[in-house]
Amino acid sequence: MPPTNNPTLRQRRLGAELRKLRERAGLTAKGAGEPLGVHQTRLSVIETRRTPVSADRIHSMAHACVCPDAALIDALAAMTGRRSRGWWEETTNHARALFWSRQHEIEHRVTHRIKHQGLDTVQLDTHHGCEFLYTEAQLNEYRSVLDRMESNALKPAESRDLIHRLAQET
Prior knowledge:
Blueprint: H1 9-24, H2 29-36, H3 40-47, H4 55-64, H5 70-78, H6 87-101, H7 103-116, E1 122-126, E2 129-133, H8 136-152, H9 156-169
Antiparallel strand pairs: 1-2
Helix pairs in contact: 2-3, 2-4, 4-5
């Protein structure tokens, strides 16, 4: 497919994840491209999200980077597929129903993951587009922001009470 100057959010996220995978393996673009039979400029175009990439290429790149995490590789490969029309509404409705039915479980898992596993990649959405943070320095700074926010935040029960009180006042 031809390069694009307007990559989708999935392409941008996928490119950031692939670059991180390569960098964690200690490979340069040239070093990672050689076993794939891909020139470093082609790899750069993929990582900068200017061109789509196939699921087969994802598996080859993961193999070249000696990535043992099959779940990560499968998730990255799944990001290469195209979405059909109406997928957003279907996904939104399903996510909303899942969230409300499993709210306490989700809250517990998110809290546990943030506290115990830390952050791996952060996607920040702004009015200018989205930005990915993945270097250790960026993630450490973001962790400190989250820690400050958590120390100042209301407890979940207090937040629910505040929301209910404000809803009754309006």
